[in-house]
Amino acid sequence: MAATTIPGDRQAQRRILGAVLAGGRSRRFGSDKALAELDGRALIDRAIADLSASVEAVAVCGREVAGRLSLPDRPRADLGPLGGLNAALHHAAGHGYAGVLSTGCDMPVFPARLAAMLVGEGAAIVEGQHLVGYWPVALAAALDAHLAASDDRSIRAWLALARPRIIAFGAPLPNINTPADLAALEQEWPDTDGTG
């Protein structure tokens, strides 16, 4: 996809980078959940494929994936999702993108209509799913400064600074944190397109 079309926006097309945040340790899952399979496909592959429909390119943040644009956490490893988001923002800023659409590697569904709801003026996140969001590249310096100045690597601390719009999507987005979450989603599959 060459660019994301945002209805009603003065700039009819924006270059958007997708970011799959994949640097977590999967403590609650007990093994590498990014590689856990749902209907025969790894969760990370599903997240990449779904997000790809809404962006020009997708970066995997926090881990190396063969054949994919892979970005190490910035400024160093083990910063959680913010290290991956920071890497994506700086890559986007350096390559002419307007912003980053982010999702977690444990979120195998990113409905195409969600991109148009998120992309706009300033940052935006999905209510209850703080890793699913839109981040303008103008936030790159602020996130760098936050990670340098604070030991609080929580998403909540970053949201207090970024002050994103909160988007009520309606249909719940599947989020896999435990083997039980995966088993429950397998029972519902294939009704996981976010349309309810």
Describe the structure.
The protein has 196 residues and is an alpha/beta fold. It has one domain (13-188): Spore Coat Polysaccharide Biosynthesis Protein SpsA, Chain A (Alpha-Beta Complex), CATH 3.90.550.10. The chain is built from six helices and eleven strands. The chain has helices at 43-52, 81-94, 112-118, 140-149, 155-162, 179-188, and strands spanning 4-5, 13-14, 16-21, 37-38, 41-42, 57-61, 69-71, 99-104, 124-126, 129-136, 165-167. The protein has a seven-stranded mixed beta sheet, with helices on both faces. Strands 1-2 form a two-stranded antiparallel ribbon. Strands 4-5 form a two-stranded antiparallel ribbon. β1 and β2 form a beta hairpin. α2 runs antiparallel to α4. The two termini are 25 Å apart. The model is unreliable at 1-12 and 191-196 (pLDDT under 50). Transfers a GMP moiety from GTP to Mo-molybdopterin (Mo-MPT) cofactor (Moco or molybdenum cofactor) to form Mo-molybdopterin guanine dinucleotide (Mo-MGD) cofactor. This is Molybdenum cofactor guanylyltransferase. It is found in: Cytoplasm. It is an enzyme of class 2 (transferase). Its EC number is 2.7.7.77.
